[in-house]
TrEMBL record:
Family of this protein: Belongs to the glycosyl hydrolase 30 family.
Organism: Alloscardovia theropitheci
The entry's keywords: Glycosidase, Hydrolase, Signal
PANTHER family the record matches: GLUCOSYLCERAMIDASE, LYSOSOMAL ACID GLUCOSYLCERAMIDASE
Keyword Magnesium: no
Domain Glycosyl hydrolase family 30 TIM-barrel: 56-428
Listed InterPro entries: GH (IPR017853), GH30_C (IPR033452), Glyco_hydro_30 (IPR001139), Glyco_hydro_30_TIM-barrel (IPR033453), Glyco_hydro_b (IPR013780)
Gene Ontology cellular component terms for the protein in this record: membrane
Pfam families: Glyco_hydro_30 (PF02055), Glyco_hydro_30C (PF17189)
Gene Ontology biological process terms from the UniProt entry: glucosylceramide catabolic process
UniProt keyword annotation of NADP present: no
Name of the molecule in the record: Glycoside hydrolase
Classification via SUPFAM superfamilies: (Trans)glycosidases (SSF51445)
Length: 497
């Protein structure tokens, strides 16, 4: 028996001249396919419920020190409203958070939990004081709003500086992450890369285990640990380089045994890579050449080097039992600006687009990347900062980046168009949704489809272009014609009658 569906549609529209966001709802007419309708071939989006793929566990964001600091400056009522925008049931209903271990670029300054591990090899001076100031109190408020449904990913940006080699920033890193004419230090630093010296692999493993246990003792539900944020990036902020061989040696000989001894293996899954998709496969393959496959729960990745959706397919096909997790993304500009970095002495960089157009480009990139990730095996999705301020910070280094929520100096906040796009996708792709087959006639309209926990079908449709687009949705012997205005993200829910 062929299912019959009733349809509802929601559309988020954006005016690229005024920056106005509008929301609308409609009820598409679902028709049985007559002989004529069966022959509709133009502008067709096909939905195939019989073809089921991965389960999508949910979405989330990073609770950096900077984001939590900004939230702590808000009134209790406003902070609750901002947290509900991510963790409320009627909003994104976030299920995952990411917390940096020690300082990252989105910290108020550099810090580490043990100031001098050389003079304190037993880590007796390990302190959570810095984490208790902003991060843990705000995360606990989020947990309360989310009714305890959150799982935390911990990610380190750099080991203690005393354990590292000197920086080794490459020409490619300078081009990708910004070359500002700084003289790269010749002494070990938390910043500009460098590597963990091999004689400190064992104490670093114990350092990570101590951190995980400290967060668990504080009541934060840590279920994931990545070995290193951006393992191939020597940035001007906190960073550390790892080859695949180095990372697998550290995992096999030191981290995994330390977590086993601490009784953490049943609680916390280990994730590798945590960097851009375009180099992911080579690094993972290098690691899996050694006997570490059973030690790894999943592979985390970022979006900053482009689509590379095919790399997700290759990873999934090669290692089908590993979780694929998008663990970071953000717009690469300061909110309200068209650039991320401004020279200290000089004019603002010129741009061919307006800040409003840049905001829309961010939202389009989010929707495009989320649709692509969904269609190529992604199971968990975590954004970067929950919020930033109007400088794209605060950061302990120059520059700034965007976030879905912008904290204002007067204690209020603004939801950007990116936030609304993320929220609409998350509202359709609820935790526990299963990706189903879909096809589209061209890149004019991008599409992803899921079977939701209530057995309804959710469809995401992105029209990023300047023209309206009429689309024919075909599913289970039925056809619906919907209109997608220019610059819109739309969602269609089909409920079986």
């Amino acid at each position: 028996m062929v299912a019959r569906y009733a349809a509802s549609m929601k559309t988020t529209s954006f005016d690229t001249k005024t920056g106005q966001t509008t929301f609308s709802e409609s009820t598409p007419t679902v028709l049985d396919e007559s002989t004529l309708l069966k022959n509709v071939e133009s502008n067709v989006v096909g939905i195939y419920p019989r073809y089921a793929f991965q389960t999508i566990e949910g979405f989330g964001c990073a609770m950096t020190e900077s984001a939590c600091y900004l939230l702590s400056r808000m009134s209790k009522e406003t902070r609750t409203e901002a947290l509900k925008a991510w963790f409320g049931n009627s909003a994104i209903d976030a299920r995952f958070i990411r917390i940096p271990l020690d300082s990252c670029d989105y910290s108020l300054d550099e810090y580490q939990a043990v100031e001098d591990p050389i003079s304190d090899p037993s880590l007796a001076t390990f302190s959570m004081e810095r984490n208790n100031k902003y991060i843990i109190p705000v995360v606990k408020e989020a947990l309360e709003i989310a009714d305890g449904k959150i799982s935390a990913l911990l990610s380190p940006w750099s080991p203690p500086v005393q354990w590292k080699t000197a920086p080794e920033i490459s020409e490619n890193d300078a081009k990708v992450y910004g070359d500002f004419g700084f003289e790269v230090p010749t002494e070990p630093s938390r910043n500009f890369g460098g590597r963990l010296k091999r004689e400190y692999y064992k104490p670093w493993a114990q350092y990570l285990v101590t951190y995980v246990q400290a967060y668990l003792d504080a009541g934060i539900p840590v279920t994931m640990l990545s070995i290193q944020n951006e393992a191939s990036a020597a940035t001007m902020w906190d960073s550390c380089l790892w080859s695949g061989e180095e990372e697998s040696t550290f995992l096999h000989d030191y981290l995994y045994p330390a977590m086993k001894e601490a009784g953490l293996l049943e609680k916390v899954g280990i994730f590798i890579w945590d960097h851009n998709k375009e180099r992911m496969l080579e690094h993972v393959d290098e690691m899996f050449e050694t006997d570490i496959a059973d030690m790894i729960s999943g592979i985390a990745y970022h979006w900053y080097s482009g689509d590379h959706f095919e790399a997700l397919d290759l990873i999934h096909n090669a290692y089908p039992d590993k979780i694929l997790m998008h663990s970071e993304s953000c717009g690469l500009h300061i909110p309200g600006k068209t650039y991320a970095f401004k020279p200290v002495d000089g004019p603002e960089p010129e741009s061919t687009v307006t800040p409003i157009e840049m905001d829309f480009a961010d939202a389009v990139m989010y929707a495009h990347d989320m649709i692509g990730d969904i269609n190529h095996g992604m199971q968990r999705w975590i954004d970067w900062n929950l919020c930033v301020d109007r400088t794209g910070g605060p950061r302990h280094v120059l520059g700034g980046f965007a976030a879905p929520i912008v904290a204002e100096d007067n204690g209020t906040f603004e939801k950007t168009i990116s936030y609304h796009y993320i929220a609409q996708i998350a509202h359709v792709v609820q935790p526990g949704s299963i990706r189903i087959g879909s096809s589209t006639w061209s890149d004019t309209v991008e599409v992803a489809a899921v079977k939701r926990p209530d057995d309804s079908i959710g469809i995401i449709l992105l029209n990023k272009h300047d023209n309206d687009q009429e689309v024919n949705i075909r599913v289970s012997g039925q056809l619906s014609t919907v209109n997608l205005p220019a610059h819109t993200l739309s969602s269609v829910i089909l409920n079986e009658q």
